[in-house]
């Protein structure tokens, strides 16, 4: 996964797209930013905050990807490492800022409790 590619894709997200990246170390798919937010509208992934990407991240198991495959049009799939799904209707991102702030706040609380520092 390339940080710059992920950041660019999320910055250019049209409100209809979910990008998923496979992390073979952990064995889960990751969605960042708006893609992460959109996945929470369609399934129930684990959500956290990525300090490396400076945005929320959703961790999706194979069952979550299957749920997305059943409800969305798959546009692109690259040998298990990347999916790009397109939703038929644009999702309003009006709640994204509040959602993302809540994820960051939770992340910072845990980091403070463990002495790991906070993200900005």
What would your notes on this structure say?
The chain has helices spanning 3-11, 33-42, 62-71, 96-114, and strands at 17-23, 28-32, 46-50, 55-60, 73-78, 82-86. The mean pLDDT is 88. Strands 3-4-2-1-6-5 form a six-stranded antiparallel beta sheet. The protein is an alpha+beta fold and 120 residues long. The relative contact order is 0.18. Helices cover 40% and strands 28% of the residues. The chain contains four helices and six strands; from the N terminus they run αββαββαββα. The chain is globular and about 40 Å long. The longest helix has 19 residues, at 96-114. β1 (17-23) and β2 form a beta hairpin. It starts with a helix and ends in a 6-residue tail after the last helix.
- On the 0 to 100 scale, the average pLDDT is 88
- Computed Rg: 14 Å
Strand content: 25-35%
Shape: globular
> Structural class of the secondary elements?
alpha+beta
| Helix and strand run | HEEHEEHEEH
- Give the CA-CA distance, first to last residue: 22 Å
- The share of residues in helices is 40-55%
Kindly report the spatial arrangement of strands forming the biggest sheet: 3-4-2-1-6-5
User: Can you summarize the main beta sheet?
Assistant: 6 strands, antiparallel
How many E strands? 6
Low-confidence stretches: none
What's the total helix number?
4
């Amino acid at each position: 996964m390339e940080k710059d590619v992920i950041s660019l894709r999320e910055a250019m997200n049209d409100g209809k797209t979910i990008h998923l990246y496979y992390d073979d170390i952990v064995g889960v798919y990751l969605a960042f930013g708006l893609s992460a937010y959109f996945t929470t509208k369609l399934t129930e992934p684990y959500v956290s905050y990525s300090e490396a990407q400076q945005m929320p991240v959703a961790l999706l198991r194979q069952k979550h990807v299957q749920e997305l495959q059943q409800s969305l049009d798959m546009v692109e799939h690259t040998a298990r490492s990347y999916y790009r799904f397109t939703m038929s209707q644009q999702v309003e991102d009006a709640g994204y800022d509040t959602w993302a702030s809540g994820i960051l706040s939770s992340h910072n609380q845990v980091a403070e409790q463990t002495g790991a520092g906070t993200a900005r």
